[in-house]
Amino acid sequence: MKDTTEILIQSGDGGEGLVAFSKSKKAIGGDGGRGGDIYLVGDRNVFDLSKIHNIKEFRAENGFNGEKNRRTGKQGEGIEIHVPLITKVFNEDGSEIITISKANHKVRILAGGNGGYGNFSHRDQGWDGRYLRTRGEMGERKRIKLELNLKADIVFLGYPNAGKSSVVNALSNAKYRVAPYEFTTLEPQLAVMDYYTLMDLPGIIEDTHKGKGLGSNFVKHTKYSKLLVHCISLENEDLMKTYQSTREEFKNLSEYLYSLPELVLFTKADIYSLDKLEEVTKKIKEEFPDSIVISVYRKEDLERLKEELKKRLSSTS
Q1: Fewer CB in 10 Å around end: N or C, the chain?
Q2: What is the domain class of 154-316 according to CATH?
C-alpha cells in the first residue's frame, strides 16, 4: 500500500492567436484556446496512491491555435487525477493546499493558460491592429505531495504477536498474512465487518514513538477512527504490565489515539483448557471488568465480540 507520493503536474499552455484575412482584407484570425486544467477528484473506488506513484508526472493538453473566420481554438483537454478519500495535498514547502475527503469532490489544482488573441480581437486598434496577435499564456507547473489518511471505524493495535491480524481475519473473512513472528503486519490493512471498516495496524514496541520497530507513520491513519481495540495475548505473563506499557506508548504516539474509546481484547484463549480458561478469565475480569477474552477458533467468542463492537460503535456515533 502506498500512502504518500510526490508528483509533478503541469497545466496546458494557451494556444496562439491567428493572423488571417478575408478576401476583402478584413481581420478574421481567431483567438487561441485555453490550456487544459489539472484536477484532483475524490474516488471511493481508489484505495491507495500506488497507481499515481507509478506515473509520477501529469501534463494537461495545450490549447489549440486560433483558426480563420474568427474561430477560437479548441481548449486543451484537462486531466483528472483520482485519489482516495481523505487525501491531503501539500506544496513543496509543506504548506497544505486542501484535503480531498468526499466522493466526487473535484478540485482544480492548476489552471491552464489563457489563449492568445488573434487579429480579429485587435481590429479596434486601427490599421496596425490588423497584423497583431498575442501568444498564449504558459501553463503552470508545480510539484505536489499527496498523503493518504485511511479511514476506519475500528483500529486494532497491540504488541507484535498480539493476535490482531487473526482477529481481523476472523471477523471479516479477510486473508491477511498471519505468522508466529514479529511485525507480520508491515503496513495498515483494511477489512469490512458488516458495513463497519476495520484496520489492522503494525505492532508497536517500546519506543515506537521514537522510530523503533516499524516506526510511527501509521498513527496518522487513526485520526478518523471511533474505537480502539487494544489486543493483548494471553501468552504474556503479566497482563497488567503489558497493558500499561502499551497504553504509555499510545500516549507518546498520539493524544488522539490515547483518548479513543478502548476495548481491551485478550486473545489466544485457546492456549488454555476450558476449565483453566474459566479461572483465568475470572482473574482478568477483576482487573479489566469491561474486557473480552476470545479465541478466534470459537465461533461463539467471535459473535460475542462482534456484538460488543457494534454496541460500542453505536454509542460513539
Answers
A1: C
A2: alpha beta
Whole-model pTM: value is 0.71
Distance, CA of 48 to CA of 38 (rounded, Å): 20
Place of cell 509543506: 94
Backbone angles phi, psi at 61, to 5 degrees: -75, 145
Inter-residue contact 86 to 103 (CB < 8 Å): no
How many other CB atoms are found less than 10 A from the CB of residue 173?
9
pLDDT in tens, 57-88: 999 999 999 999 999 999 999 999 999 999 99
The CATH architecture assigned to 4-148 reads Distorted Sandwich (2.70)
Distances (CA, A) of 139 to 9, 16, 19: 10, 13, 22
Domain ranges of the chain: 4-148, 154-316
> Residue 9 to residues 92, 140, 261, 262: CA-CA distances in angstroms?
12, 8, 41, 42
Per residue in 256-305, pLDDT tens? Answer: 889 999 999 999 999 999 999 999 999 999 999 999 999 999 999 999 99
